[in-house]
Amino acid sequence: MPFINVKIAKGRTVEQKQQFVEAITKVAGQILNVKEEWVTVVFDEYERENWATDGTLHSIKFGKGFGKMGTE
């Protein structure tokens, strides 16, 4: 039973997350040769002030609202 943990910054819509879980569930089932109902996907969402890359917090690096419509 695959358990897939997705860590993302907050701001994605329910529709975006639904599309993602549909796609990842289908591919995981095919590649791992398991029934799709056995695939579990969990999102861990983080505020951008709690996530940094290259030594800079995302809230500073990308500014307010970045990513709310996808990968702007």
Sequence of secondary-structure elements: EHEEEH
CATH names the topology as Macrophage Migration Inhibitory Factor
Structural class: alpha+beta
Q: Helix share of residues? A: 25-40%
**What is the architecture at the second tier of CATH?**
2-Layer Sandwich
Give the distance, in angstroms, between the N- and C-terminal Cα atoms.
34 Å
- Under CATH at level 1, the class stands as Alpha Beta
Low-confidence stretches: none
Shape by Cα distribution: elongated
Taking the sheet with the most strands, its summary is:
2 strands, parallel
Proportion in β-strands: 25-35%
- Strands ordered across the widest β-sheet: 1-2
* Count of helical stretches: 2
Mean pLDDT: 90
The H-level CATH homologous superfamily, spelled out, is: Macrophage Migration Inhibitory Factor
Whole-number radius of gyration? 15 Å
Tell me the count of domains: 1
The total count of strands amounts to 4
Keywords: Isomerase
Enzyme class: isomerase
EC number: 5.3.2.-
InterPro entries: 4-OT (IPR018191), 4-OT-like_dom (IPR004370), Tautomerase/MIF_sf (IPR014347)
What does this structure look like?
The chain is of the alpha+beta class. It is built from 2 helices and 4 strands, in the order βαβββα. It has helices spanning 14-32, 58-61, and strands at residues 3-9, 40-46, 52-53, 56-57. A two-stranded parallel sheet has the order 1-2. Helix 1 (14-32) links the parallel strand 1 and strand 2. The protein is elongated. The model has no long low-confidence stretch (mean pLDDT 90).
